[in-house]
Fold these 4 entries.
Entry 1:
Amino acid sequence: MSEKIPTIKEIAQKLNISISTVSRALHDHPSIGLRTKMQVQKLAAEMNYEPNQTAIQFKQGKTFTIGLILPNLMEEYFSLAINGVEQVALENNYNVLIGQSHDDLEREQKILDTMRRHRVDGVLVSISKQTNSIGHFEQLEKYNIPVVFFDRVPNVPHIHSVWCSLYDSTIDALELLFKKGHRRVAYIQGPLSLNIKNERLEGYYEAHKHNKIPINESLIVTTDLSKAVTEKVFEKLMLLKDKPTAILAFNDTVALDTIQYAKKMKLKINKDISVVSYANWPITSYLDYPPIASVEQFPNDQGARATELLFKLLDSKSPEDLVAVGNIVLKSKLIVH
Amino acid sequence: MSEKIPTIKEIAQKLNISISTVSRALHDHPSIGLRTKMQVQKLAAEMNYEPNQTAIQFKQGKTFTIGLILPNLMEEYFSLAINGVEQVALENNYNVLIGQSHDDLEREQKILDTMRRHRVDGVLVSISKQTNSIGHFEQLEKYNIPVVFFDRVPNVPHIHSVWCSLYDSTIDALELLFKKGHRRVAYIQGPLSLNIKNERLEGYYEAHKHNKIPINESLIVTTDLSKAVTEKVFEKLMLLKDKPTAILAFNDTVALDTIQYAKKMKLKINKDISVVSYANWPITSYLDYPPIASVEQFPNDQGARATELLFKLLDSKSPEDLVAVGNIVLKSKLIVH
DNA sequence: AGAATATAAGCAAACGATTGCATAATTTGT
DNA sequence: ACAAATTATGCAATCGTTTGCTTATATTCT
């Protein structure tokens, strides 16, 4: 029934040679004669020999594993990012250890602890909404474990990051609305985290400024992304004297909750109210009234680029290299439906 | 900048005791005196000592890691299952290594290879659509690495599995439709895999038999889950002389593609045609015309139960135990919207 | 006090692979 | 044919931790 897993020791015994010779033969070391090399490789294949990774990991002080910490797998956005990460990792013969913070700081730290104990070679992370300090990540770098932040990047200096700029696309989105005649565009923003750059809002301001449309601060409202709060703030918006004719929604969750509620209020979508959003759900194509445009952030790309950056950091042992690699900013794109 | 990671050896040197004493002190071994124990634990804490997992893994021949192989993370169903798995794993201080087969057999095997090489202690798997033999899994069990199949379970004997029976709920779903007066219910089934039990179809037959409604084989059609094919088979159904008034859809992908296309054909949803489906997308609540009912399969539960079963297998070293544990079948539930 | 017992700590091997250095075996040059 | 150069192989330490067995120290009993 259960077989013993073969080791180089057994190969060495059967061939009456030393284990070092076997090891070198399997690695095509030049100082091993052709005959021996062939013999060893043949026997190894016959015995289904496979090097014991745990032994190698231990000896080399490397696990060939990277940790990937995400807020959530439910968000399609992150599931897509994983694909990019996995692909690059696979190309480099690395494994990926995934952990979900569920937007909980304590859990994020706990996951990081487990990963550190398991001696991952590097960490990729999209921080939780609660994360307001990156002390726990800095601690990793003390032990020479590089950390690359992606997508949700803390707004602090001297970190390695990959993220997608939303500034230009936000401006594009508003230009689109302005061009369609909208003058009162509300922005339903997500939870304010001091640590994430607020490019949506910056773009919102800039687009207004550029088009010489005055900002009405009461059109900027905040939701915690829950359905209830989104509905409440939307209702408040529609009770304004100067109510908006269009909505810039923080993401598709907010957009869909808004659209659903608007319909309940008997508003005509795309007539009384238009919605533009930031894409995280591809499902919107099944809706009768999807947002008229979305900002696409190319999660797969972001994941891949972040992983490539991490491998660059892993390759460079000297601390000077690490400082030089820096940050990568990708471009988002407005997709008009 | 970069610190060296402390080991028990250093602790031993600083306290002028042996490493075995340190090791035992940290493990609360009874043969270590209280004074020494305290000293060691205090110093270890001060030095931020953390046991080197790679060394332990190597020594113990255990990685405290389970492999989880899924067809796809895009399907919300599997993302939810992961949560159940993660939770149970965390409770047992285990890590989870996730791999996506993308419904590709070759990839499934490759992932399994990597996991075997990394010496995972056990494997959880929901097989790919292409998987028509389980040889690659049986090979694992030869090395005493238990395998638990879940959700998509191959239809072969002598395996450990956790899955959710769809039989009863399928009957419930059809009863619901029959009660609403439908007499011609089409079934759009997914790709036929010889290795997965076809409970949907069995339920479909049984419900008809029980209600003495004759089966019309032309109402049973097959899609490969692509939008194009789903639309084609639906169109063919609607061209029948005795066209159906309701559809039992293989899953929400099929259901939504069907509904979308029906609307394009100017059919009135829930009047000309009603749809019942198997839940994999919670998003359906945002639709104007969602399926009238869905069969819920409780992915989180399934994941958790499967992981518990795997741990049971890991705990029992004797091969007899392994045979006894067997299979777990959960119940699905019809949710009427 | 001296032997028997209980308590505390250390020695050394083991896990599987890698690798610098030494040594053995073979070939080449003269 | 013998030294020199080349090629092939082996020895042994190492990574950090665990653990069976031995030994040293302290306590208890008679």
Entry 2:
Amino acid sequence: MNPSTANFSPYLLSSVFNPRYHQHLNHLNDMAFTHTKMLQEIIDKRSIDSSSSAPSSPSSSSISPMAATSNDSIQPKKRTHAYLDNNNNEQQQQQQQQQRRQEKDDLIKRSKIKQEEDDDEEDNHLNKRSRKQSKPQQLAEKNQIDDDEQLSSEEEMGEVHSQDEKNNIFPIQQPPILPFSPQSLPFLTYIQDLARTHNITSPASMTRFLENLQKELFSPMHNVGIEVKRLAPSLPPVFSQTVHHHHHPYFSQILYNNSFVNHYTPPPPPPPILPFGNTLSDRSFPFRLSTPKKRRTKVTDTRLSPRITSKIISHEDLMDDDKSSSTHSFDSTTSNHNNNHHHQQSTIEYNAFQITLTSLHLRKAKLMFFYTRYPSSSVLKVYFPDVRFNKLITAQLVKWFSNFREFFYIQIEKYSRQYLAEGIRNIEDLIITTDSDLYRVLNLHYNRSNQIDVPISFRDVVQSTLREFSHAIQQQKDLEPSWKKSIYKIIQRLDDQIPDFFKDEHWMHSI
DNA sequence: CTCGTGCCTG
DNA sequence: CAGGCACGAG
């Protein structure tokens, strides 16, 4: 709106005034949370092993070793992470950290085995319930449920009769979800540490960092899946199920969509630290993405999110497309060890390509908007040849254009009313030039760097749209329920052919 | 019930 | 821009 904002530096715009900056922080927060949780789990597993093999924590509980350890593994979770958890377990934790460095490899194997045991334990309940849980609105809560079940089954595994423990645990299990609650602040610190560890001093290295981070989030899970299968041919379904459930196109999406890179302020020159990344990728359990989210209230909801979620689950194995029944692929791939080979293959293949839309794709899409406001999904597929399309991706792209349109129409309506208010009577007087405010606003939105040849046809479209809106408003059509629909239809016919160079990847990378 | 769309929210 | 949601077609 205000042309003067164009003079602001991108950094100021995005980091200070742009609310998306907060989203970035939240995403990073979540990532940090996940990582911390993973590390914590490793520590926990370690403590389980050490306590069962060596009497290192004798007095902590008189019940049994198992009960003691399961208790340990729960407490840190409640407090969101171990950094804050300097209570009774301090001694034990120090010990654990030392041991962890020394016997990292050993740990992996053991914890994997341990994981299998865990899965065996919770197989029955979890399996049945999650399958039955086809109701979409519950999927959002699935993570929560998983955690709960995880907790309870761990307890059962240790000692079921510890009702007291459960009671103690519950109140803290309901932590606040506020993005910047005191509890989540440490994660910002944590992510900074991560960045420093990865020697991030420039946006370029930041990119690498994010990429590595993503790999660490992805590949280990699959490696785990494979390895475990090797170790235990009779892997219970629930294990893979858990893995699948927490699959993350979404997560990677976050990594890619975030232009955090652009806003990142390099920290002071960091002292070299141990390669931390390996530790991360060493974890050998299916971590849970318990990203706090608003819970659904409606029961009737069957919308995008749940559906997509289920799609993710079913599609990550067969990225390519729909046709196959989701439930089938899900079950067979997860619970059947005869599929070992297949599973590996799909896993590898899955790791091989990008199933994410990058910010580059976004810019490209915006530029395409100059030509077409209503691209069909088939058109999108043609003009994004480097993208591995699945329903998720398609939905996202479609959503992008939907958002583009929204902005487009909102601006035009705004200016339309403005012009009318300024006393314009004759619609023919509404002429859009490249210098028009409206045009500049739109151009700024879809073509920030101004490095594309905006087709003249776009100017025509803007003008036409403006006139349609003005006309409708003038006629007070805007009082009718869905008066914009008819305008939309008209504008939809004005779509142009998209130039072929949009298909060229090289060209795309040049923008 | 699934799926695609549009609105509107954060 | 992405999440959520209501609605309607199939």
Entry 3:
Amino acid sequence: MQLILHFQSQPVLAKQSLCFSYPFVKTKTSLPSNLFAPKSPIFTIPLSRYHQIQTHNPILCARKNKRRNGSQRLTRLLLQLMPAIVSNFKILPQPLDLVVEEFCSGDGSGGRKSLLLFLLYGVLVICGLGLLFGGDVESNVLFCGLGFGLSGVAMVQWLDKIGIFAIFFGGVLLSRLVDFCTNSEARDLGYAKKVFQQISQPSVYIWNSMIRGYSNSENPVESLIMYREMLQRGYLPDNFTFPFVLKSCSVIADYRYGKCVHNCIVKTGYGLEVYGSTCLLRMYASCADMESALKVFDIIPKWNVVAWTSLISGFVNNSRAIEAIKVFKDMELHNVQPNEITMVHVVVACARSRDIDTGKLVHSRIRQLGFDPFGSSFNFNVVLATALLDMGSVQQMAQKNLVTWNSMISAYNQYGWAEEAIDLFSDMRIAGFVPDQTTFLGVIGACAQLGALAFGRSLHSYVSKTSMCKDTTIGTALVDMYAKIGDAGSARRIFENLQKKDVMAWTSMIICLATHGHGMEALHIFRKMQEDASVIPDQITYIGVLSACSHIGLVEEGQRHFASMVNLYGIKPTADHYCCMVDLLSRAGRFDEAMRLLEEMPIQPNVAVWGALLNGCEIHENVDLADQVRRYITEMEPHGSGVYVLLSNIYARAGRWQEVNRVRELMKNRNIAKNLGHSSVEMELLSS
DNA sequence: CTAGGGTTAG
């Protein structure tokens, strides 16, 4: 079976034909199957801007055209095809010097025929046919076809120019090949590396291709290793090298390496290059050093949109949204026209700083600039739209992508509308979107809120069958979900199986144990966490630790942890921490200390803190203190019913019914209704 | 062959 493709829309190409034949694929099983199975089942070959061939398992048997004038076109075509073909077959080219040697050792004076033979042989060597498939007759035949076809074209073009021939294949083709397998859609960096290793003296361009490929890969560290090797072997990086290297530094946030690269940029004189310096800015911003980022900004030779936008995004991503907005205003003063990307960052800045007024101004500026995705049906920018959606200035979106769905699900979660979040999840699946890690983070969180046991478990089992099961964020969400559902055992198992445990993972486990009444175990986990030098407890960790202490009544231990939180880790205690401490002390009946702590508090005690104190008063029937607390509470703004109920319970217990009535009056006057308690349990229905 | 974009667990 043979398929001949004619290119008809382009007059010159119309005369050309390429044969794509399939015979060996379907009938012969002797061929290694992976040979014909590239990453995607459909193989797309870009022929020109207007032509694309989509085919399964193509084998090229290029045929030389009879008419000479078409050959140049076909050569170019083949040049475009070669990387695709060679990389599809995972053929390793031979080192250039080896090829050159082949040519030089031939009889230079020979006639045309022997020259042709040499050329043919050269191409075969380059394709490394014997190297990979020597034993297989069918594939040899096949590759002979390939080799012959290629050489046929090459012969016409380069018949008398052996020197050029060598450069042509050594320089251009290998560059194209490396480019193709590092940066095309069907890239394969493992193969790229092998090809690269065949090149004895890679040009800077090829180095750059490799570094770029790795910088966009899963392991950007590889690009840094590549870069180091480049320097060690005495190659001089150029202005293209630095952006790629710096991108890797940014992605993995390697501050020290980034600074070394900065040094190198300065030394090689590319420090004042627009691209390079903008990348430097981003690198410092990614490494959370905004001060250096600002210094770099100052030396950027031209403050264009990208430079400004990078600075804005730096502030946004370092939780300095207000400064980001300031920079944006500055940019407007400098009369630099913002683009959609700029506005995305500014919108995020408004959302993060909860600055609704500026948010409205920004939205109208977006309209003014003509970027508003909701202003007209064309020019719909999903990213900007999602950012606006997240800021809350949009209710409905007609066009959604994965991130939009995720954003909506998490927004519903934050409003506490867990059921709606789950509904949205099923809508999204009906709409044909494949949920990703962020989606699951949201839906698992919704299950945690709802206590949706069965659905939560099904999510868990789904996730464990994917690569997400190793992910720390997913694991943490699951730990929290099981904790909230009441299944501390499952939470524990997931936690133990986590390969990497970060602060959040440890913290969620500690809080889980503390809330399930396993205070000792929670503290044990905390000690294990402290043994791990790679994690530093933060304020939320200490909420768990302190509440664990308070559950088991370890006052001194709690006080020690509180002190080390402040002195060792420099964490400023929040109202929640004081709440824990007051709870700890007043449960133990140590009211003097509790009151002293309250007086020393540098922040205003909130209702929860008073509530904790009242809780202790109830346990120890300390009505006098409760009286004092009542005075504070009545001075405060009206709030939830909790403290009033506590107060009235305390008075009731002491038999002070008048006071009970006064508290109830107070509640009535302040229009506070007692919250209805509710809980839900999911039950399995057993049949027969 | 080069720089900047939305969602994200405790």
Entry 4:
Amino acid sequence: MSLLKTTALLPNPCSTTALSSLQCGTLLQSLSNSKSLTQAQQLHALVTTGGTLRHNTYLATKLATCYAACGHMLHAQLIFDQIVLKNSFLWNSMIRGYACNHSPTKSLVLYREMLRFGQKPDNFTYPFVLKACGDLLFRGIGRKVHALVVVGGLEENVYVGNSILSMYFKFGDVAAAQVVFDKMPMRDLTSWNTMVSGCVKNGETVGAFEIFGEMRRVGVVGDGTTLLALLSACGDVMDLKMGKEIHGYVVRNGGNGRVHNGFLVNSVIDMYCNCESISCARKLFEGLIVKDIVSWNSLISGYEKRGDAFEVLELFGRMVEGSAVPDEVTVISVLGACNQISALRLGTSVHSYVVKRGYGVNVAVGTALIGMYANCGSLICACCVFDEMPEKNLAVWTVMVTGFGIHGRGREAVSIFYEMLGTNVTPDEGIFTAVLSACSHSGLVEEGKEIFYKITRVYNVDPGPTHYSCLVDLLGRAGYLDEAYAVIESMKLEPNEDVWTALLSACRLHRNVKLAEISAQKLFELNPNGASGYVCLSNIYAAERRWKDVENVRALVKKSRLKKAPSYSFVELNKMFHQFFVGDTYHKQSDDIYAKLKDLSEQLKKAGYKPDTTSVLYDVEEEIKEKMLWDHSERLALAFALINTAPGTTIRITKNLRVCGDCHTVIKMISKLTDREIIMRDISRFHRFRDGLCSCGGYW
DNA sequence: AGCTGCCGTG
């Protein structure tokens, strides 16, 4: 309804004819469905000019309710405060308004005030009070409200019952929800849907399918919401078979025949992505008559999650060319893709787009930007975005701590970690992992240990396997191998693969064969198919020149058909990506690259370079080993970059694995020899080579 | 006057 039309029908408020309460009330009633603030405000102006509001509880109540329904709680509260005689209708509207507009605390405050005023809560009050308790994870208060519901005899109301279910699911208390559900005298579709989606959200996938089965047995027909939850469940457990069945069900019944433009199809795309069937997702997507923003985002995020960055960028390009306008969600996935392939230039242009469209206020977008800049080697830009963020949640702090960590700036990581503790953000396992890992990359043993022991004592968080692996890594890298081993032995929980891997790689670094054999043994027991443990152990034997043992390990690898992931490096040049594998001769500049490397190796030798061949796995002549080192992918990428960029430009290389020890030495020397800054990102951190030195200071 | 609800950040 347009306001212009409406007001034309009404008497002029400035005229002597006053607007009747009933007229305004009906008008507001219809407006409350339109959820338009401007209409409500104009009407508000209309009635107040008439001088009717102050003394008209009926109208004021209607207006407050209208504002609350629009989600404009500030206006609603102003009017609410003026009303002397508050009826239950008004209280309920306000409690609902706050609960549904991200102010659950205010909702509960008002509920308490309502009780103090002697107003009895009813079946319209409790659903929102319960919602607020659930959102705030107020378990104690939630249970008390549940008790009051029982006392008030409202437990049998289906709306109240459904809200109780939902609240217990938010608490993660599936059993309590089940008990309530079993006792419900009447269940509607929402009750069933709440059960199904509640189970899914709590990881009870089997339970969700059981409820669905029961639902069908008693003849309840599911709707889009049911299917949505089930599709999400299929994705969680990667049950492609069930997913396809539900897809069929969606095609036959779902969305009232709106399958090709309804949102359900997007969830099917998402399901296929989560079931690692990207081709099914793609096929469905391409066949869509109407591709909305969520369709695009579902597929793009699917490619991003599986690490197909180039596919993400291609789809993004297609999207921009077409009519779809990328939104915050799109941008987050695209930034994630830039992050994966260190596409700094592209990431920066996405940042401009973010600014242009005003997406920067979104916390998730800011987080993605910081992550992109940090992972593309531009810590300064990451810091700028971080500093400018008006609202910093846990994810923001975590990504910034991680960013400092991978750049070897442990002190800054620790410092902002403590800065975060000074705010009202509560730390979780994730940020402890980030700060501990930052400590280990910088050799901050004491700081790291202190934080580790604070996890339990001060923050009541139980350290998980990841924290232990960080601590072992921290101690191990710094050479405290026995202490690291003692930590593992003291663990209350079973040490996992990561813990032993951390000890094993520390053993390689400090050449401790005895502990290496222990950790490798544990690693093989935990995962006989993991290749990295075998590779690491054979490296350790090779360093000790125990070729027989190397051979034995390699035989084991062969027998179990384990394959090490092929190592590669790449560089971005004029928005093109050039990828190099070990000993790669496919690049069209291949001859020039090898010539450049030969030239560099000679110059390095004159400067006193002695190759460290311990990382070469094969028992061959020393000379051949040296030659093999010069085939490493990071050197090919570096030579290529040196040939194709102007003197003095910074070179950025990305490698999918850890940089090898000899390459590290060589790149240090080349940075001095060619007077270049070389920024190299490997699997776990950044190395900034300048003037013969590296920012990692030997910790990597 | 209500309860359940697609794609996204560490």
